[in-house]
Amino acid sequence: MRIAVSGKGGVGKTTLAAALALTWARDGRRVYAVDADPDANLAEALGATPEEAERCLPLSHLADVIEERTGARPGAGGMFRLDPEVDDIPDAYSVEVDGVRILRMGTVERGGSGCMCAESVFLRAVVSRLLADEESVVVMDMEAGLEHLGRGTADAVDAFVVVVEPGSRSVATAGAVRRLASDLGVPRVVVVCNKVRSAEDEEYLRAALGDEPFAWLPDSDAIRMADRGRRTPLDADATFAEKVRTLAGGIIDHIERT
Asked: What is the pLDDT of residue 59?
């Protein structure tokens, strides 16, 4: 399975991405968790220690490796290979925490999201390599857009999970992400409502989204406190953990049925 998780900042997408990755890893699956958000904190959400998180180097900063594989130094311009060899990168530069292999993409520091430079080509090649791995589960924690997921790799994503909280800005971002996923040809878009406190929240989200969400996750003080103590969301709140397990199974069923 290849899952991309997105949503407006603060809706809990990183928490959910970490919870899904941990759930599948604890079920005995081989899991890669890819932090493709410039505001990178997926390692911490997975329970990494400060030392483990520091070892999770942004791939975009591996100047020597990028030059070796593409033939061009980052920032130098000029000619470079468009199909660099990256088969060894996921294992060589991932950090394993609780059975999950964490990779941090990093960002391309100049140009737009479509920047055609050595770093961009390298990152896209790594993502393509991961998405082609049929033996592993890949959970990508995205920003609201699809910075590292172009038309050449979008069709390899099995499901796009959009996280929404009860608020107009979150709903608007979810709509934009769903349209972008559709434009890129992502075959399945799953909407998960998070931080739901009341029946009024549910009623608002049903009306604003225009259809029935795939799953509902409650607001949780325990998860907020866990973040301060570097505990994983699954270990902090048993109710949340059970709902995520149900969601994880539902995503698998959805992929197999459609």
From this structure: 93
- The DSSP output letter for 47 is T
Token pair 């995520």: residue = 244
Contact 169, 199 (CB under 8 A): no
Residue range 126-175, pLDDT digits in tens: 988 998 888 999 999 987 655 555 555 566 788 989 999 999 999 998 88
**Secondary structure element (H or E) that encloses residue 152, with its range:** helix 151-154
What pTM did the predictor assign? 0.90
Whole-angstrom CA distances from 182 to 42, 161, 239 are: 26, 13, 32
Query: Is 6 within 8 Å of 192 (Cβ atoms)?
Result: no
Q: Rounded CA gap, 61 and 77, in Å?
A: 16
Integer Cα distance of 154 and 175 in angstroms: 18
The H-or-E segment that residue 238 falls in is helix 238-257
